[in-house]
Amino acid sequence: MATEVFAIGPDISPGLAIHPGEVLAEELRARRLTQKALAEALQRPPQAVSEIVNGRKRITAQTALELEQVLGTPARAWLGLQMEYDLVAARIAASRRAG
User: Does the pTM exceed 0.90?
Assistant: First the structure.
C-alpha cells in the first residue's frame, strides 16, 4: 500500500512510503514462490503471509528473523522498511491532525 508523503527539507517533494509487504510480494514474484509456499517455510498460516503482503499486518522483529532465515534477506532490511513505513504514516497522521 503506497502512501503519499512529502519529504522534509528545503525542497519539499512528494514521495511514497512502501509497505514492506509490497517488497515481499515482489520478492516472491522474483523467486517464483507462492504465498502458500512461504507460509509453509515460515511454519505460519497462509493468512499471516497474505496479511503482510496486503499491508494489513506489520513485519515484527520475529517475522524479520524468519524471513532472513528463509529468504536470505537481512532482518535489518525488513525492519528498516517497516520502520520507514511507520514513520511516514505517523508524519501523515500528524500533518492531518495539524490541518
Answer: no
